[in-house]
Design goal:
Blueprint: E1 2-4, E2 10-12, E3 21-24, H1 37-40, E4 43-46, E5 52-54, E6 63-65, E7 80-84, E8 90-94, E9 102-103, E10 105-106, E11 111-112, E12 119-142, E13 148-156, E14 167-169, E15 179-184, E16 191-214, E17 220-221, E18 229-235
Amino acid sequence: MISLSTYAQVGINTQLPLKPLHIDGGKDNVKGVNPTAEHAKNDEVIDQQGNVGLGVFTSTTKLDINGKLRVVDGQEAANKLLRADSQGVYYWEAIPYATLTVLGTFEKEVVNALNTEALLYSNGLFTLTKGKWIVNAVVTLSMPSDTNLWLHAYLSSIKTAKQSTGFTFLGPSGSKTAYAARLILSTDDVFGLVSGSSIIDVTAPQATIYLLIEDKGSWKFTPNYWENYFYAIPVL
């Protein structure tokens, strides 16, 4: 039922429209009686200022909702935050305190340097979701006792070379970011550590990231050594 009053107020399913446009979705407003707050729960109104009220009769903002709101953009998921960009467009985003630390895994195979000056896959990897992360790593290398070596490790989106598809480095060195150590071993030493932290921004919905070690000198990496770790912490 549509009702038109002398003030050009339009009522749909109600004979007593309270605003220029008033829709009674539940058709439960009592004829000839001002509807109550309970009746408002299934009503929609638009006032003279163009304010829209859903579940309320008086809206003080452009959109006033009394009830649950659902926003679907394809990125919605549990524990995400509804945020706005510089243009006021809203979107869902994962937030650090709702995102768990991601632990990398090392496959069991031992890696031996061949001194090719290329990069070797350490067998360490993890998959990160979109957002900024601090990535921490330590690799324990066994090597000859007379070693004097400057050695690097890198994050990469492929296993065979440096590449950063799906993520970017946020540190001052940009794409040259690396973990490193000066390994100077005495006659009594047989182990060295390459360690460090880096900050990355995963720009893809998710990215699998591999830990590579510079194939330089003579060393062996055993993934199950106690000191090894590879993990990422979410940050704002």
